[in-house]
């Protein structure tokens, strides 16, 4: 097992990963990013059989580089990619910069970019429409969803993804990252802070007894995940921020069972609804503070359609280890003043400072002070 982790080797299968922008001009989808990492010698392809229960997450936490698991127990032929933003060089590569770009240069460039938002572009079709599964045939357990940690209460399908929603009153779009625990073939939790944009949208929908449409996109451009994880002001579109970060409009397609838009080059898209006035338990889940966290008031998501690219790559991550890719992303967003843990202003200020100083263990310690439910 250690030999596989230490061997930075590419197989002939690398040819399956696109090295260009694609026919429709997308600015580097997930497959493009994986190939960029491979070309830079920053990807390990894990070819031995790995158990999706605990082992995959453990190997990821022990690694300091990106991993593409190609042989997952019970899921022949399916792949899981993780650890993509493990360090500064990987973040630079995700934004189209050189891997040796200095941290200060990276932040200066990112600040310059986000000052000029780029609106998304709606297109007619995209790779994610290659395979469509209707509601009656959906089984999310057919996806290689890991149980990332032995601290976790189950398998988490949403750890490094986006949740797209709209305010039913204003039509304002929200794109966030809210953790999702798989509950069954068509159901999952969506865990969100009561102060989040999503929770406010759900509250408005519930006043009228309406479900809230949700689109879950897994395996999107890393710039889209960066934007979704950012504390962007309410009413502003995270797709605009993603476009700014990647310096090109995010290409979107219209969902088919809900009135929402998702990146056309997503690996996997799950359309569905948050059921009104229903709460379920999410967790325990080993969260960013390095401790198990349980949310007894998570939303219940029910899938209405599944779409995916041929030979999809599942994207996820295991968080909770100091300096893991979630911490790397938080540090990047803190430098841009785009991080919010929905705590007290004093606590937020301390966390921001620790992230900018990259003192991740102390950051975790502060995060443990008080109950924080984070999606």
Give a verbal description of the structure.
The chain has 375 residues and is of the alpha+beta class. 27% of the residues lie in helices and 24% in strands. The chain has 11 helices and 16 strands. The strands form 4 sheets. Strands 5, 7, 8, 10, 11, 14 and 15 form a 7-stranded antiparallel beta sheet that branches. It has a 4-stranded mixed beta sheet with strand order 1-2-3-16. The protein has a 3-stranded mixed beta sheet with strand order 4-12-13, with no helix packed on it. Strand 12 (251-254) and strand 13 (261-263) form a beta hairpin. The radius of gyration is 19 Å and the shape is globular. It starts with a helix and ends in a 7-residue tail after the last helix. The model is unreliable at 1-25 and 371-375 (pLDDT under 50).
Short description:
Helices cover 27% and strands 24% of the residues. With 375 residues, it is of the alpha+beta class.
Helix-strand blueprint:
Elements: H1 2-6, H2 30-39, E1 43-46, H3 55-62, E2 66-69, E3 79-82, H4 88-94, H5 103-114, E4 121-122, E5 131-134, E6 156-158, E7 161-166, E8 173-176, E9 180-181, E10 187-190, H6 197-207, E11 212-218, H7 222-229, H8 238-246, E12 251-254, E13 261-263, E14 268-286, E15 292-308, E16 313-315, H9 325-335, H10 345-356, H11 360-368
Parallel strand pairs: 1-2, 3-16, 4-12
Antiparallel strand pairs: 2-3, 5-15, 6-9, 7-8, 7-11, 10-15, 11-14, 12-13, 14-15
